[in-house]
Amino acid sequence: MLSLLIREASQMGIDTLLASISSRNQSSIDFHKKNGFTECGKFVSIGRKFGQDFDVVWMQKFLY
Question: Which residues contact 23 (CB under 8 A, 6 or more apart)?
Fold first, then answer.
């Protein structure tokens, strides 16, 4: 699915993809890293779920 998104985004002239991921979702962060995304920002302690604070991690991938 990600490869389809990348291909179609490129065809549309989009050159950067962004992902917003909960810091508690390490598997998603690892998946994005494996697929060429790098961390570009973080909102610290912006959310709370089940009584625990979490960050929001922003990752980006350049398509060019």
Answer: 29, 42, 54, 55, 56, 57
